[in-house]
Amino acid sequence: MKKILLVLLVSLGLQTQAQINICDSSEITITVNTNGYVELETNLTTTNFPQITSIQSYTWGKNGCLMGTDSSVSISFNTDTTVLYSINLVTYYNFMNPCVTSDTLVWNNGSWMMMSMMQQPYFCCDSITYWTDQSQGFNIGLDTTGIVHNPDSIKVYWGVCTNGLCYADQGMYAYFPQVTTLDTLKVNYDVYLYENGVIVEVCSIEDWLVFDQNTYSWVLLNMIPTSINEITFNKINDGRMYDMLGREITNVTLGTMYIKNGKKYIRVK
């Protein structure tokens, strides 16, 4: 009995593994590539996967619209980015399984490419920051010492606002003589990263800065500690009497309210 169960479990495991391997291995490839015309093909065929006993149907779609029902399809369209999908009802090991493949067709430098095959962006905005110094005015520059990849070129656009006025400059560093160490600054930059003449990433940031007199440097506004000390009063109990206007008095008439040692009283007798 145990041997029969073991055989069944192994059989089911092999079938599941085969299903995963086939569907996960399905691809869409470009066989003909021109400006307004491409031919696409799926690799899910009995030739590529001998364990497939039959493929009941092929369904091709473009941006949600049906395009064809064969192992390959021809498309004519403009250079817009296009979302593709292919649905294949595949039978293997006596099981019918729908294998869905999807990808995005992108017009890139004069030819069509599958987005899954394109090199993913290798820049990281989090690895870029800026520096400031203690000189007169306000000096600021881009710090790329931690950048994860060096692009072909960088363009930087700076903006600094203070006292209701904003100033702009561009370059790897900038100088704003209008700023003093008494100002609260809003600082922002837009960094354009280029590879082969094409913008591959844009990094933007906006900070509020103040000048810390303890460290003689510009710091983020939220880094300056703020506190309110409790106000204490020294109470003097000298027995003097005052009327409700705070004027000192020596005699209090009957039924009159007065102040003595910080408390209110009314003379009743």
Could you characterize what this model shows?
- With 269 residues, the protein is mainly beta.
- 9% of the residues lie in helices and 49% in strands.
- The strands form 5 sheets. It has a 5-stranded antiparallel β-sheet with strand order 4-3-6-7-8. Strands 12-11-14-15-16 form a 5-stranded antiparallel β-sheet, with no helix packed on it. The protein has a 4-stranded antiparallel β-sheet with strand order 18-17-19-20, with no helix packed on it.
- Residues 1-20 have low confidence and may be disordered.
Question: Key terms for this structure?
Answer:
269 residues; mainly beta; 5-stranded antiparallel sheet; 20 strands; 9% helix; 49% strand; elongated; disordered N terminus
